[in-house]
Amino acid sequence: MFAGHLGAALALGRVERRVNVGVLVVAALLLDVALWAFVLVGRESVTIPADFAATHQPVFVFPWSHGLVASLAWSALAGAAAYLWHAGLRAARTRAAALVAAAVFSHWLLDALVHVPELPLAGDRSLKVGLGLWQVMPVALAVEAIVFAAGLALFLPGSRLSRARAAWLTLVCALVLALTVAGMTVAPPPPSASAMAASSLGAILAVGASVGWLGRRSA
Ligand SMILES: [Zn+2]
Fold it and tell me: Cα of 55 to ligand 1 centre, how many Å?
């Protein structure tokens, strides 16, 4: 899931316009940033199963990035960092911190909706949860597209973006949705876990930077 997390970030971006929406995008994808970094250093794993062409679902072992307790800890850490970073917002500082923390935790909730039961509560030996909506891919993609479109529809009005910026932002977001749908339907299996990790990290940072640049307040 990529577009759904982007939608959650955009929706939260409406709540406090002084928090750069690119920060919220990276926050909403922070658990995946942690996952791919842990995969690259060998602390977590992603395996491409033999039936990948049919399911488009890798198998994840990711207790440190996607465990429930771990996710709450990442949310708290990111919230604390946002609180320190947004000193200039004075009274709205706590709200900025809460928004960033909520963006981080929204990732876990959305992932728990689509993954098969593979998200551990606390540590790899604990109970694993996941509603498995990806088993019914058309429904999962429809839900993701709705979350994504709702986020964009909430963010754009009142954003004070120029027409050109709003159009570019919509285009970048639509591209993410297209890539998400392609990745879950027609994409060939990735050549390796580390290639998947590196390309995913690059995509997250590129989308975070472009949405942050296009969506920043002009006044
Ligand atoms: Zn994830």
Answer: 17
